[in-house]
Amino acid sequence: MNNSASVATEVARQERKTVRLGKLFGIADQIQALCLARKTAEIRVVNVVPTGRLNIVEGQVVHAEFGARAGLEAAIALINLRDPESEVEPDSPCAHRTIELPYLQVLLEAATRKDESSLVKHPVEESPLKDRKSTRLNSSHLVISYAVFCLKK
Question: What pLDDT shows up at residue 5?
Answer without folding.
Answer: 58
